[in-house]
Amino acid sequence: VTLISAVIPAIILSPVMIGAPLPALADLPWFLALGVVGNAGVQLLARSYAHIEAQAAAVMEFTALPWAALLGWFIFAEPVAPATFAGAAIIAAACLWASRGKASPIDPQQATIP
């Protein structure tokens, strides 16, 4: 999991691929630290996905849209379209609905068959 999430972006975003000059030698420890933090984050995500039910993880994965809209608005001052707000509201409602408690199982002794 971390190999794909680290190597592919490293190749695509390397200064050689995009035609940018190489970073200064003094900046390399920062890049190394960012790589370690990013790798740790992906490892934690992979570990959490291994311990969660697929039906719960699938619904929570859709929260990327509200997070992207919120961060784009705060950090980049991008306006958020009304359709994005509607989609985020639907996603939030679905996540809340999916996170509610499980129904108690039906006792076969009490079930009636017509």
Number of DSSP helical runs: 6
Rg measurement, Å = 22 Å
What is the typical, i.e. mean, pLDDT? 79
Q: What share of residues is helical?
A: 55-70%
Major sheet summary line: none
Distance between the termini: 51 Å
How many DSSP E strands?
0
Would you tell me the structural class of the helices and strands? mainly alpha
Low-confidence stretches: none
Strand content: under 5%
Description:
The chain is an all-alpha fold. Helices cover 67% and strands 0% of the residues. The protein is built from 6 helices and no strands. The protein has helices spanning 2-12, 15-18, 28-50, 54-61, 64-76, 82-98. The mean pLDDT is 79.
Keywords, please?
single chain, 6 helices, 114 residues, mainly alpha, 0% strand
List the helices and strands and how they pair.
Layout: H1 2-12, H2 15-18, H3 28-50, H4 54-61, H5 64-76, H6 82-98
Summarize the structure.
The protein is mainly alpha-helical. Helices cover 67% and strands 0% of the residues.
